[in-house]
Amino acid sequence: MELGISDKVKPLIAAVQSMVNDEIAPLWEEYHSEVGKTGDRFEYTTRMTEILEGLKVEARARGLWNFWLTDSAQGYGLNTVEYAYLAEEMGKTPMGPEVFNCSAPDTGNMEVLERYGTDEHKERWLKPLLKGEIRSAYLMTEPDVASSDATNMAMSCVRDGDEYVLNGEKWWASGAGDPRCAIYIVMVKTGDDTAPKHQRHSMVLVPSDAPGVKVLRAMQVYGHDDAPHGHMHIKFTDVRIPVENLLLGEGRGFEISQRL
Q1: Which residue from 6, 94, 130, 201 lies 20 to 30 Å from 55 (Cα-Cα)?
Q2: Would the pLDDT of 73 be above 70?
Q3: Which CATH architecture has domain 135-259?
Q4: Do the beta carbons of residue 230 and residue 260 sit within 8 Å?
């Protein structure tokens, strides 16, 4: 396997390095100092928005956008190794990945939507994510089970006619604190314990403003809440979603994960 820098990615690395060093990194301190000025650490001030959106407009105008699409007609056709070099440069400042629309968890979520979403899903959520207009979160870890083994996930998802009803809690939902987070991809349990353990779970799409969704708190790591991105503890109480929001099929959640 060739692990060196290819001729294709060399000019992209140079362009990203230049923008990170000369334009993004110098604004990070001012941007971060704005967090909490409104009294809500998960609310963007006018200046934060000006800085971030201005840089995003510039990156997109230069064609430095959505590098993560490594196997897609919409991307640059880079392979994973080529993208890794760009990720290294973007990650040299906390604001870098979002400026180029290459932030987690959006990158993985967009990949899921591109491969397994319906045309309606793509129109409603993938298109604005690709444009950097909204954010997303992936919800898997739960507070009451050993989540390092994802087959333990227990959040209930029961079909009721043309809807699924969700009940349970998720935590460490990275990105869910961002007020622009519009969609969650949620790992839920749709099969009983008689099914093979890797066929009991499914992925569903849940709008962040769905009735019954409540953000309980921001989780902290060594006292830091990572605002305004955040890693949230979220409760679902009789949250209803249309059956069309199920991705790929019941019991195929792990299949989706393995295919990415």
Answers
A1: 6
A2: no
A3: Beta Barrel (2.40)
A4: no
